[in-house]
Predict the 3D structure of the following.
Amino acid sequence: MPHHLIDALIGAAAALAVPATAAGIAHHSYKATDIEETVEIRTIVLDFPAPGEFLTRGVPTASPVQPVKVGTFRIMKQQVGAETYALCVEDGACDPADSAIPNEEDTPVTGVNYLDATAFAAWYSKKTGYPWRLPTADEAAAAAGERFAGDAFSATADDPANPAVAWLRRYREEVAAKRPADPAVKARGFYGANANGVEDFGGNVWEWTSTCYARTALASDGTLESRTNNCGVRVLEGLHRAYMSSFVRDGKSGGCAVGTPPEHLGFRLVRDDTALAHARLAAARLWQRAAGS
Amino acid sequence: MFTRRQALMGAAAAAMLAAIPPMAAFANEAEIAGLPRERVTLVAPPFVHAHQQVAKEGPKVVEFTMTIEEKPVVIDDDGTVLQGMTFDGSIPGPMMVVHEGDYVELTLVNPGSNSMPHNIDFHAATGALGGGALTLINPGEQVKLRFKATRTGTFVYHCAPEGPMIPWHVVSGMAGTIMVLPREGLKNDKGEPITYDKVFYIGENDFYVPRDEEGNFKTYESHGDSYADTLEVMKSLTPTHVVFNGARGALTGDNAMKARVGETVLIVHSQANRDTRPHLIGGHGDYVWEEGKFANPPAKDLETWFIRGGSAGAALYTFLQPGVYAYVNHNLIEAVELGATAHFLVDGDWNDDLMKQVEAPGPIPTH
C-alpha cells in the first residue's frame, strides 16, 4: 500500500476515534460543519452493463447486462465544489484544477483528472475524519438511479464479416444523438435531484469512478474467458459512459472516440464509514505497526 | 535614345514572345460576343455545381454571380464567433468549374449592408493583380469582370483590397477556388483519360481569434472592433483555429462526405494563406496534382500531399474499403486540437484480402 494512503487511513482512523471538531482539524479554515452532505444508497441489485469492451469468440459484442448487487453506501449529494477543492490546492495536497477560477457561484470543480480526484479524497479524509473515496462504476450507477445511462452506443459487430457496418452504424447513431453544446459550468444543484436525492448526475459534468477500463473475452455461452484491466484508463459515468486516461483533465481532448465528448470532468465521493471500512482501518493500523514505521 | 537596358529588355521580351504558345491568337470583343453563354448557379461547399468533365462543345462565356456577405460566423463547438467575411455567404467561397479556353464572367456584388470595400484576385487570371485592380467595389456597388481561363488546374481566388486589409480579409474567410479543366478532361500520368464520380471541395482556413485576460475567446460587436486585436494575433503567425470549410466539424457528423466502395472521388483542397498537408487516414491519393495544375502529370500513390499556402491541389482516389475515414491536415495537432478534420462515410463490402484482424485483442499468452 502506498505510504500516503496509509497516512490518510491512519489520519481518518484517528479522527474517527474522537469527534471531528476536537480532532485537531484546526488546520486552515476548514470546518467539520463544511462536510459535504451525503445520501444513503441502500443495498440494491442492478441490471448493470459492465464497462469496457467485450468480445465473444473474438467478435465485438455489447456489454452483457448482468444483475450486480451493490451494498449500502453513502455518497455526496452534490459533486465536489470548486471552493472546497481550492482549499486542498492551498494545502498543497491537490494540483490546481484546469478550469476557470471559481466565481461567486457555488460551482462543482471541473478540469480535474482521476489522480486529482484521488488526491482530494485522501486530503478530504484527513480533514473531515471520514474515509472518502471515489465510487466504483456500479456504485455510481446505483447512485445515479433512473439517470444512469451506461454505454450510449452498442459496440456489437452487426456483420462479423464487415467491421465497417458497425463503425458506420455507430457513427450515424452518435450523430443522431448529438446534443447541443452546454459549455458553461452551472451552480451545484442546477440539474436537480434524482429519485435518490443525488443532485446533478447526468448534467454537463461527468464523474470519475475508480473502475478500470477492461477488455473482456467471453466464450460463446457467455462465460468469462479472460479479462485485461487497463487501470491507466478509468470509467466516468454521466450523460453517457466515458473512458479517459487517468491524467486527462479536459473531456474534449481526452476522448478516444468520435461522437460528443464529455463537456467537463468532475467527481463526487463515497463516504466509506461502513463496518467494512472500520475493519480496513484497523487492518491498516496493524499493518503499519508491523512495518515498524 | 535606345539604351543598353532597353535593348536587353527588348531581347527578353522577344524571347518571352517566342516562348508563348501559338494560342496567342487573341479573340476580339465581337468574337467573344459571338460565343455561347452559360449561366451557372453556384452551390455551397463541399459540393460543386454540375459540370462536364470533358467539354462537349467549344469555348463559351460562363457567367457567375457572387454576393459578398460580411457576417459573424460560429467557428467551433464552444460558440466562438468570428467576424467573418464571405464570398456568397460560405467559407470557403463556392467553387467555379470551367474549361480551358472558356471565359469566366463574374458579377461581384457588395451590398449596402456591408461596411467595407472588397475585390477579387483570381490566381487563374492574367493581369491587373488577378483582377483585383479592376474589381474594388464599395458597399452598394457591383462590378463585372471577364477573364480568359488560359491555364488548367485548381486555383485560389481571394479578396485583396490593399495593405493589411489583404491578409485580414483572407483569414476572415474571403477565399475560394476555381477549377479549370482541360477540354478533354483529366489524364493520368500515362496520358490516359480518367474521370471522377464525385467531387468534394475542401477549403482550409486558419483563423486568429483574440482572447481576453482569462484566455477565453473574445466576441466583438463589429468587424471594425475586432480589427486591431485580430491583427496582433495574426502577426503571431499562430492560428487559434485551423478548420475545414469555415468551422470545426463542418465536414463531420451530418455533414460528413459520403461515398461507396468503388466510387472515385476528386478532392480539391484549397488554402489561400498557409501551407497544409492533407492525408486520408486509411486511404491514399491514387493520382495527386499537388500544385493543382493539370498540365503536369499527377503524382501516384501518395500518402500525404502538400498544398502550398496560396494554392489549391487536387487528389483522385477510388475507395476500396468501407468505413469511417478521417481526412485531416496531417499536422495532427492542427487536425485534432485546432479542428482540421473531416470525415468520409463509405458504405460497401469489406475486403479481407486488403485487411483482416487475424486475431482479436486478448491477453498475451504465457508459457
